[in-house]
Amino acid sequence: MYSLKAETREKREKQEGFISAILYGSHIKKNILLKVEKDDFKKIFKEAGQTSLIELENNKKKYTVLVYDFQEDPITGEFIHIDFYSPDLKEEVETEVPIELKGKAGAVELGGTLIQSLRVLNVSALPADLPHKIEIDVSSLKTFEDYIDVASVDLGKKVKILTNKEEIIATVVESEAEEIEEKQEDETITTNEA
To answer: Which of 17, 46, 103, 158 sits CB 3.0–4.6 Å from 139 for a disulfide?
Structure first.
């Protein structure tokens, strides 16, 4: 499990090098206002994301948390606020897990373009069983008719997939067909504008 230290903060306190945060959960009676070091959080978040448990230490107390939500500065992209949620470890939580494609799709060699239609899967699991990411091998995409859908993903018995089973995750389209589609879209836009 990842570890992160947090300090208690005053309501409107802002400090250079820190990100303001809040901690809440079913067994936490009152929300706790916190601040975490920017660099420490960035490093942990890069590895843990929103689906791995983090041990958050504050005032010699330790909480098992998930990064439930965060806000970023729209211009700089820097974190400006974090919501830490301390779940009941015996209760399932629902969350989105990122999909990462790996391997080589044979149909790309035939002059196609790999299209990833889904970037995340909605899942339900006990907090400790949540996957950090879902890796999907695209080597089964040998022709332009092949596709990988949600139904073909197996995450074992501990993780339930909530996303519609019929949704397509990845496919390879013919580059020519793609260009024709784009041309048709351009022509439609031009016609509509005229």
So the answer is: 103
Strand segments (E) across the chain: 2-5, 7-8, 18-25, 32-37, 54-58, 61-72, 79-86, 93-102, 112-116, 120-125, 134-137, 147-149, 160-161, 168-174
Asked if residue 102 lies in contact with residue 142, where contact means CB atoms within 8 angstroms, the answer is no
pTM for this structure? 0.76
Structure tokens that stand for 170 in this block:
């990845």
pLDDT per residue as tens digits for the range 146-183 = 999 999 999 999 999 999 999 999 999 987 654 545 55
pLDDT, tens only, 39-78: 999 999 999 999 999 999 999 999 999 999 999 999 999 9
Alpha-carbon span 124 to 153, nearest angstrom: 14
